């Protein structure tokens, strides 16, 4: 669910203090973006929203969420935005966030 190698790489690149700020910013941006997802969004809007969520997820190692968003983005690009629902994305984000927060101390020694 979480690519801990990517998370460690990011933390090592930017330092522990900046990493904490990035995590806080990431969580805030994700929750804001997730709140805007709509089940009846146009294909173009869904594609754009899922593209943003995919990129953000990849940056912080939320690999399963990034994969789901990529699948939804591709489906929306072909005119089938209903393939991946906002509820699916929100559920996986919640599960990923819970795992990330629970495992971060052990994985990163923070």
UniProtKB/TrEMBL annotation:
Gene3D superfamilies: HPT domain
BP GO annotations: phosphorelay signal transduction system
Annotated organism of origin: Thalassococcus profundi
Pfam families: Hpt
Keyword Phosphoprotein: yes
Keywords for this protein: Phosphoprotein, Two-component regulatory system
Coiled-coil boundaries: none
Domain HPt: 8-107
GO molecular function annotations of the record: protein kinase activity
Residues recorded with modification Phosphohistidine: 51
Superkingdom assignment: Bacteria
Name of the protein in its database record: HPt domain-containing protein
